[in-house]
Design goal:
By secondary structure, the chain is α+β, with helices and mostly antiparallel strands. 19% of the residues lie in helices and 36% in strands. The chain is elongated and about 180 Å long.
C-alpha cells in the first residue's frame, strides 16, 4: 500500500508538473501569438478611388484589383488606375459599386456589381463586356445585383443574386437560372442567394437568406443542409454570408449575425464559435464575413466590428487585431470585408472605411517596441541608449528621458524606474546612457549627468555613485557614456566630459583614472570615451569620440594608438569610434563615425575598410553583432544592414522593412542567450532572431503599365505590337515589378533591341524614353527585381515598328526615280526651249531696237531735210534775191520771220523727243503734270494726276527713267486700252517712291502677253521692265481682260532690289 500510495503520489505530482508546464507553454505561446501585427495602409490619400474595399483579387499578370463602392482600382505597386462607369462609353464598367471579383483558371477577371450586373475585363482592349438583367430576355441575368462569384471545375461561373442562382457558360455566353420552387423539394431553398462556393470535390455550396444548399457535381438537384449546433440553428433562419473550405477539407460557414461554424465531413461533426465579451480569445464579433487560410496555415476571420481575427486551430483560440487610433500601423478599421493573399505572400485586408491594409509577414520578424501614449505599460521613452537581457531573461532598457525600463520574462509589459527627487533611493536620473549586468548579478546604470547607480534587487533601491572632488579615487565626471566588465571581473567606465577612462576597484570602491598626457606617448589618447571591448587575447580596446582607437596593454600598462592617416588607406578610416566587436572567428571589427566599418589585421596592425561603396547604407556604424552564419548586423544612421564580409554583400533594412526607425544609437545593441538581437535608436528598439529574417524569394512579374507618344498615353494593341509613324519619334514606356512588399526598393533594367547594346541599369526608375529613331523593327524589354534583389530575367517585352515615310519606301523610290528622270528630261527640254525663246526674243528686241533707232534717225533726217532744211533753203534763196540794191519789202521780211519761228519750233520738238529738257526746267513732278494735262486735252481720256514733290530726292538718270516709264504707260492707256478714265499717283514714303497708274480699259493677260514671244505685243512692257531694272526698282503689273490695268512701281531711295513682275 505504501508503495502504491507513493507511486500514485508521484503520478499526481508528475501530472501537476506537466499541467504547470503546459500552462506555462500555453502562456508563452499565447503571448508570442499576441504580438502586434503591423499593416501598411492605403486609402484615398494614396490614390484609391474610395475607402470601402470589400473585393480584392490578383490577376494572372500580377496586378492587384480592388473593388470599392466608387470604382474598380488596379494597383501596380505605385499608382492606382481607376475604372469607372461612363454613360457615353458602352464598354466602360457597367456600375461603380463593386461587390465581388473572380479570376478564373483561364485568367479572365470577372466583376460583380450592385446595380450593373456582371462584367468581364477585356485585357487586350482595356475595356469591359457586360452581362445584365433584361426582363425581356429570359436568358439574361436574373438580377443586376451580383453578390458573389465562383468557378467550378468545368469552367462554369456561378453567380449569386437576390433573384436566384445563375450559371454562366463563358464560352457560349449562355446563362442558366436556378430558382426556388416550393412545389419541387429539390429546388433551391430560397432565391435570396448570399454566397456560392465550389469545394474540392466539385460540389457547389449555396448560402441563402435562411438555409444552406448543396448542389452535387453534374446534378440539378439541391440538397438542403441543416447546420445544427447547440445554441444555433445555422440552417434554420440565420443568413449565411460566406462559405469556405480549408486545406483539411473542413467546411466553414459564416453568418452576419450568428458567428462562425465549421463542419468536419469525415467525422460528421459541427463546431460553432460565438463572441464572448468575457473571453478575449473568443471570436471578435458574431458578425462574421469571409474566412481565409493563407499559405502559412494561418486561418483568418473577417468580422464586422470585431477587427481581423486569426484562429489558432491547435489552441482553439482567436487572436484579434483591431484598429488603434494611436498606432498608424494597426488595422485601419475594425470592419473587415475581404481577405486575400497575393503571390508573394502578402496578406491584403479590405476594410469598411479604411481602404486596404497589407500585411507583410517578413516585417513581423522585426518586433518593434515604441512608446504608446495610450498604454502606460509600454516603453516610457523612444530614445533608447542601451538594451540588455539579464541572466533571468528579464529585459532592461535605458532611455534618454524615460528612465530605466524593465520587462519580466514572458511578459509584454514594462515597468519603469524613474527619478524621484524626494527619494534618494530612486534612480539618480531619467537620462540613462548605458546599463550593464555584472558577473555577480549586480545591475549598474550610467546616466548622462548624474554618475552611476548600482541596483540592489533585494532592497529595491539604487545606490548612487557620483563624483566627489574631495575624495580620492572618486569618479572624474558624472557624465557616463559606457561601461564594460572584462573577463577578470574588472569594471571599466568611460566618461564623456573629459575625465577619460576609469577602472573600478570593487574592494576599495575607488576608481583608477587613465587620462591623456601630451608628454607621454604611452598614455591614452582622448578623454571622451565612447566604447570599450576586451578581445580573446586579453587586449582592452578603447574607442574615443574624435581621437581614434586605443589598445591597452595591461602587462606593460601602456596604450597603443591607432589614428586615421589621410594618405594611408590601411590606417583607421575615421578617428570617431562608435563600437568595437570581436566575432566568432576572432576578427576585430570597429564601427566608426563617418568612415564605415574597419577590420583590424593584428599581424600588420592595419585596417581593411568597408563603406557605403560596398553597399552599406551609411558610414556611421553604431553597433555590431555577428550571427551564426558569419554575417555582421550593423546599426547605422540609415537603417540596419546584414553584411557578409566574405563577398561584401549587404542587405539593408529600413522602416519599410519593419524597423522601428532608420536612426540608431551608439551602445544600444545586445545579443541575448537565445540568439535574439536587440538594437535601439531614437524611435524605440527592435528585437529579432537573425535566422528568421528571410529574403523575399518571390520572382516578381514585370508588366508594361503605360506607353506614351509625345507624353500622351497610347493603348498598346492586342498582340503586343506597336506601330508608329516616322514622325512619332518621341515615345516612352512605363513598367513595374509587381512585388508589393516594398515597391520603392524594386530595381529595374531595360533595353531597346536595335538601339541599346546592353541592359540599361535604371535603379528605381521605371520608365524609359526614346527619340529620333530610324524606321525599322525594335523590341523593348524591361526586367525587374524585388527589394531583395530577386530578378525576373524574362521580364516584359513589346515589339515596336516605326514605319518609314512614304518617300523612303521602295515603291516610292522607284516611282520617284522614274519621275526624277522624266522631270530632268522635261526640265532640260523646257530649258532648251526657254533659252531658244529668250534668244529669239532678245534678237527680235535688238532688231526692233535697231529698227526703232533707224526709224528715229530717218524721221529726224526727214524733219531736218523736209522741214528745217527746206525752210532754211527758202530763207537763203529769198535773202539772195533781196540782196539787190532795191532793198527788202516789209511783207517779205514778215514771211521770213514766220518761217524762222516755225523752224525753231520744229527743232525744239525734235529735241524734246530725243531728251525731255522740261525735266531740267520744271522738275519731274511738274513735267509729269504738264504731260498728263496735254494728253488729257489731246486724247479725250479723263486722266487725273496726284504728284507729291519728289524731284529733289532722285538722281537725274532715275528721274528720266521714271518719266519714260510714265510716258510709256500713259501711251499704252491712250493707244491700246480704250479706257475712259485713268489716274496717276506718285507718293513719297520712308525709303522709296511709289508710282501707281490705273485705268478702266480692256485689260490683258499679263502672263500670256509676256510669254507670247511676240515682241510687238510685249515691247512696251519689256522696255518698262528694263528701265525698272536699271534703277533697282520693283514693277508690279496687275491686269486681266475687261478688268482694267494697274501698274505699281516702287523705286528705293537708297538700296537696290531685283526687279519683279507679278501677275495677280
Amino acid at each position: 500500500m505504501a508503495t502504491g500510495g507513493t507511486y500514485s503520489h508521484q503520478v499526481a505530482l508528475k501530472r501537476r508538473a506537466a499541467t504547470a508546464l503546459l500552462a506555462v507553454f500555453l502562456i508563452h505561446s499565447v503571448n508570442a501569438q499576441q504580438a502586434t501585427l503591423r499593416f501598411k495602409r492605403m486609402s484615398i490619400r494614396e490614390g484609391l478611388s474610395q475607402s470601402t474595399v470589400y473585393a480584392i483579387a490578383q490577376d494572372s499578370i500580377g496586378f492587384v484589383w480592388l473593388g470599392t463602392q466608387s470604382g474598380l482600382n488596379r494597383y501596380d505597386g505605385y499608382t492606382f488606375k481607376v475604372y469607372a462607369h461612363d454613360g457615353d462609353e458602352p464598354h466602360s464598367l457597367s456600375d461603380d459599386y463593386i461587390q465581388c471579383l473572380l479570376v478564373t483558371q483561364s485568367g479572365d477577371l470577372w466583376i460583380g456589381t450592385a446595380r450593373g450586373g456582371l462584367n468581364r475585363y477585356d485585357q487586350s482592349n482595356d475595356q469591359f463586356d457586360s452581362y445584365r438583367s433584361d426582363p425581356k430576355d429570359p436568358h439574361s441575368l436574373s438580377s443586376n445585383n451580383v453578390r458573389a462569384l465562383c468557378e467550378d471545375g468545368d469552367g462554369l461561373i456561378w453567380i449569386a443574386t437576390p433573384a436566384g442562382l445563375n450559371c454562366l457558360d463563358p464560352v457560349h455566353k449562355s446563362i442558366r437560372h436556378f430558382a426556388c420552387d416550393p412545389r419541387i423539394p429539390s429546388s433551391l431553398s430560397s432565391n435570396d442567394v448570399k454566397t456560392v462556393f465550389c469545394d474540392s470535390r466539385g460540389d457547389l455550396w449555396i448560402g441563402t437568406g435562411n438555409k444552406v444548399d448543396k448542389l452535387e457535381a453534374h446534378s440539378d438537384k439541391f440538397v438542403h443542409v441543416q447546420l445544427k449546433q447547440t445554441g444555433w440553428q445555422g440552417g434554420n433562419g440565420i443568413p449565411i454570408s460566406n462559405i469556405y473550405e480549408d486545406r483539411r477539407g473542413i467546411m466553414w460557414f459564416s453568418s452576419i449575425v450568428g458567428g462562425l461554424s465549421n463542419y468536419d465531413r469525415t467525422r460528421d461533426k459541427f463546431n460553432h464559435y460565438r463572441h464572448d465579451e468575457k473571453d478575449r480569445h473568443s471570436i471578435g464579433s458574431d458578425h462574421v464575413g469571409v474566412v481565409y487560410e493563407d499559405s502559412r496555415g494561418n486561418f483568418w476571420v473577417a468580422t464586422y466590428g470585431g477587427g481581423l481575427n486569426r484562429f489558432d486551430r491547435t489552441l482553439n483560440l482567436f487572436f484579434r487585431y483591431r484598429h488603434d487610433p494611436f498606432d498608424q500601423e494597426s488595422l485601419a478599421d475594425d470592419f473587415v470585408g475581404k481577405i486575400m493573399e497575393d503571390g508573394s505572400g502578402l496578406l491584403w485586408v479590405g476594410t469598411g472605411v479604411g481602404g486596404v491594409c497589407v500585411l507583410d509577414w517578413r516585417k513581423q520578424s522585426f518586433v518593434v517596441h515604441r512608446t504608446d501614449p495610450s498604454d502606460k505599460s509600454n516603453l516610457s521613452h523612444n530614445n533608447v541608449r542601451g538594451v540588455i537581457e539579464d541572466r533571468d531573461g528579464g529585459l532592461w532598457v535605458a532611455t534618454m528621458g524615460g528612465g530605466l525600463n524593465y520587462r519580466k520574462p514572458g511578459s509584454n509589459r514594462f515597468s519603469q524606474y524613474r527619478n524621484n527627487p524626494r527619494d534618494p533611493r530612486s534612480i539618480s536620473s531619467d537620462f540613462i546612457t548605458c546599463v550593464l549586468q555584472r558577473r555577480n548579478g549586480e545591475l549598474w546604470i550610467g546616466t548622462k549627468e548624474d554618475g552611476l547607480c548600482r541596483y540592489d534587487r533585494n532592497s529595491v533601491m539604487f545606490i548612487r555613485i557620483t563624483r566627489d572632488p574631495r575624495k580620492a579615487g572618486s569618479l572624474g565626471s558624472n557624465a557616463i557614456e559606457t561601461m564594460y566588465e572584462d573577463r577578470s571581473g574588472v569594471l571599466w567606465v568611460g566618461t564623456f566630459r573629459g575625465a577619460g577612462l576609469h577602472r573600478y576597484d570593487d574592494r576599495s570602491g575607488r576608481f583608477v583614472r587613465y587620462d591623456p598626457n601630451p608628454h607621454d606617448t604611452t598614455s591614452i589618447c582622448g578623454s571622451y570615451i565612447t566604447c570599450i571591448h576586451e578581445d580573446r587575447k586579453g587586449n582592452l580596446w578603447v574607442g574615443t569620440l574624435s581621437e581614434g582607437l586605443n589598445r591597452f596593454d595591461r602587462r606593460r600598462n601602456c596604450f597603443v594608438h591607432y589614428r586615421h592617416l589621410p594618405l594611408d588607406r590601411r590606417s583607421l578610416s575615421n578617428d570617431g569610434i562608435e563600437c568595437i566587436r570581436e566575432d566568432a572567428n576572432g576578427n576585430l571589427w570597429i564601427g566608426t563615425s563617418g568612415g564605415g566599418l574597419d577590420l583590424y589585421n593584428c599581424e600588420s596592425e592595419t585596417f581593411v575598410r568597408f563603406s557605403d561603396r560596398d553597399g552599406l547604407p551609411n558610414n556611421v556604424i553604431y553597433g555590431i553583432l555577428d550571427d551564426s552564419h558569419g554575417n555582421l548586423w550593423l546599426s547605422t544612421n540609415r537603417g540596419l544592414s546584414r553584411f557578409d564580409p566574405r563577398n561584401r554583400l549587404a542587405r539593408n533594412f529600413e522602416v519599410d522593412d519593419g524597423l522601428q526607425g532608420n536612426e540608431f544609437n551608439g551602445g544600444a545593441f545586445f545579443r541575448a542567450n537565445d540568439g535574439r538581437f536587440y538594437f535601439g535608436g531614437i524611435d524605440g528598439f527592435v528585437a529579432f532572431y537573425p535566422d528568421e529574417i528571410q529574403d523575399n524569394l518571390h520572382v516578381p512579374p514585370v508588366a508594361l503599365t503605360n506607353f506614351r507618344v509625345f507624353d500622351e498615353p497610347v493603348r498598346v494593341p492586342s498582340g503586343g505590337r506597336i506601330a508608329l509613324r516616322y514622325d512619332q519619334n518621341f515615345f516612352s514606356f512605363e513598367f513595374a515589378a509587381l512585388d508589393f512588399a516594398a515597391p520603392q526598393k524594386n530595381k529595374y533594367a531595360f533595353k531597346l533591341e536595335g538601339v541599346d547594346r546592353d541592359w540599361v541599369a535604371a535603379g528605381g526608375r521605371r520608365y524609359a524614353s526614346y527619340t529620333n529613331l530610324d524606321p525599322g523593327e525594335y523590341r523593348f524589354r524591361a526586367k525587374g527585381s524585388n527589394r531583395d534583389g530577386i530578378w525576373n530575367e524574362e521580364g516584359a517585352s513589346v515589339r515596336v515598328t516605326i514605319l518609314p515615310p512614304f518617300w523612303s519606301t521602295s515603291w516610292f523610290r522607284i516611282l520617284a526615280t522614274t519621275a526624277v528622270i522624266g522631270a530632268l528630261g522635261g526640265a532640260y527640254s523646257f530649258r532648251v526651249r526657254r533659252l531658244h525663246r529668250a534668244r529669239e526674243t532678245q534678237e527680235l528686241f535688238s532688231r526692233r531696237l535697231i529698227e526703232t533707232q533707224e526709224t528715229e534717225r530717218r524721221r529726224i533726217a526727214g524733219e531736218l531735210h523736209d522741214g528745217i532744211g527746206q525752210d532754211l533753203l527758202i530763207i537763203h534763196n529769198e535773202l539772195q534775191q533781196k540782196m539787190h540794191p532795191r532793198g527788202i519789202s516789209p511783207k517779205v521780211l514778215q514771211e521770213l520771220s514766220k518761217s524762222i519761228i516755225e523752224c525753231i519750233n520744229d527743232v525744239r520738238q525734235i529735241a524734246s523727243n530725243l531728251h525731255p529738257h522740261q525735266l531740267e526746267r520744271l522738275g519731274l513732278d511738274k513735267a509729269i503734270e504738264s504731260d498728263v494735262g496735254k494728253l488729257t486735252h489731246s486724247s479725250g481720256v479723263n486722266i487725273s494726276v496726284k504728284v507729291e514733290p519728289i524731284d529733289t530726292l532722285l538722281a537725274a538718270d532715275t528721274k528720266i527713267n521714271i518719266y519714260r516709264i510714265v510716258q510709256e504707260a500713259l501711251s499704252n492707256v491712250v493707244k491700246h486700252s480704250r479706257a475712259s478714265v485713268a489716274s496717276v499717283e506718285i507718293s513719297k514714303r520712308k525709303r522709296s517712291i511709289h508710282v501707281l497708274i490705273k485705268d478702266n480699259g480692256d485689260g490683258f493677260d499679263v502672263k500670256r502677253r509676256l510669254s507670247s514671244g511676240v515682241v510687238e505685243e510685249s515691247f512696251g512692257l519689256i522696255s518698262m521692265a528694263e528701265r525698272v531694272k536699271l534703277i533697282g526698282g520693283e514693277l508690279e503689273i496687275t491686269s486681266a481682260p475687261m478688268k482694267g490695268t494697274s501698274i505699281n512701281l516702287r523705286v528705293p531711295l537708297s538700296s537696290t532690289t531685283d526687279t519683279r513682275i507679278t501677275d495677280k
